[in-house]
């Protein structure tokens, strides 16, 4: 692989990580193949074996590699072994994935919520009402709305006794906030969402999970149409998490 084709790194470890990741992504180290021996790979990249070993362990934890004692390090198929934590890396490697990733993040957040929020309202409606305690003081900015939205949807997972959903939201928190801030940059979208929050709060007060389901379905349709337009004009900096 040409050294000039490597992403810019700020440290020897960063250089090694970017070299290996980009080599895997560009199929220079194909899934299912073995990495070169540590000594050879360290010399090729220009880092110490100690630095390389630390990087390999980190990439193995992320799902890029499979390390077994006494055997060559094997390259994984990341679509089978990695988690949402590598989304930012994928975007840096190929911006063409942005529309798909955004659509997936928005869909995952919304579809999951349509399952667990009505359940939370059914189980503990009074506790659900408390989640909206800061709504009247919500600052009219994209950043404030993004933070409120994330916390609201995340806190509902615990009231629904769905803590694994909270872990899923945690795994793409940075992307969630970046997507949300773009959506909420438009004052009209903030007004639309404020109306949605109030309708959802009304469903909690009424202890009506079916009303919440209908409210969320309506919001999904209206916000989905907006996102389809926004996705066509994303800022160049998007994805730089």
TrEMBL record:
Protein role: Multifunctional regulator of fatty acid metabolism.
PANTHER family: FATTY ACID METABOLISM REGULATOR PROTEIN, TRANSCRIPTIONAL REGULATOR, GNTR FAMILY
Pfam families (alphabetical): FadR_C (PF07840), GntR (PF00392)
SUPFAM superfamilies per record: GntR ligand-binding domain-like (SSF48008), Winged helix' DNA-binding domain (SSF46785)
Lineage per the UniProt record: Bacteria, Pseudomonadati, Pseudomonadota, Gammaproteobacteria, Pasteurellales
InterPro entries: FA-response_TF_FadR, FadR_C, TF_FadR/GntR_C, Tscrpt_reg_HTH_GntR, WH-like_DNA-bd_sf, WH_DNA-bd_sf
Keyword DNA-binding among UniProt keywords: yes
The protein's name: Fatty acid metabolism regulator protein
The keyword Disulfide bond appears for this protein: no
Highest taxon in the source lineage: Bacteria
UniProt keywords, alphabetically: Activator, Cytoplasm, DNA-binding, Fatty acid metabolism, Lipid metabolism, Repressor, Transcription, Transcription regulation
Residue ranges of every copy of the HTH gntR-type domain listed in the record: 10-78
Cell location: Cytoplasm
Transmembrane feature ranges: none
Main location: cytoplasm
Quaternary context: Homodimer.
């Amino acid at each position: 692989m040409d050294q000039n084709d490597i992403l810019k790194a700020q440290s020897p470890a960063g250089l090694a990580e970017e070299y290996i990741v980009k080599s895997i992504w560009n199929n220079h180290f194909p899934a299912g193949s073995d990495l070169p021996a540590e000594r050879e790979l360290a010399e090729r990249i220009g880092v110490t074996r100690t630095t390389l070993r630390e990087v390999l362990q980190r990439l193995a934890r992320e799902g890029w590699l499979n390390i077994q004692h006494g055997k060559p390090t094997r390259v994984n198929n990341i679509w089978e072994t990695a988690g949402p934590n590598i989304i930012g890396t994928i975007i840096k490697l190929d911006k063409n994935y942005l529309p798909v990733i955004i659509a997936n993040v928005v869909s995952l957040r919304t579809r999951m919520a349509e399952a667990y929020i009505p359940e939370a309202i059914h189980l503990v409606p009074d506790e659900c009402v408390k989640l909206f305690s800061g709504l009247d003081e919500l600052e009219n900015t994209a950043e404030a709305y993004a933070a409120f939205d994330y916390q609201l949807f995340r806190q509902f997972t615990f009231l629904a006794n769905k803590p694994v959903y909270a872990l899923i939201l945690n795994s793409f928190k940075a992307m969630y906030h970046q997507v949300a801030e773009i959506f909420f940059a438009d004052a009209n979208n903030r007004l639309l969402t404020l109306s949605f929050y109030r309708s959802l709060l009304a469903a909690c007060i009424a202890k009506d999970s079916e009303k919440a389901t209908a409210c969320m379905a309506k919001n999904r349709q209206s916000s989905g149409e907006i996102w389809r337009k926004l996705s066509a004009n994303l800022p160049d900096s998007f994805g730089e998490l």
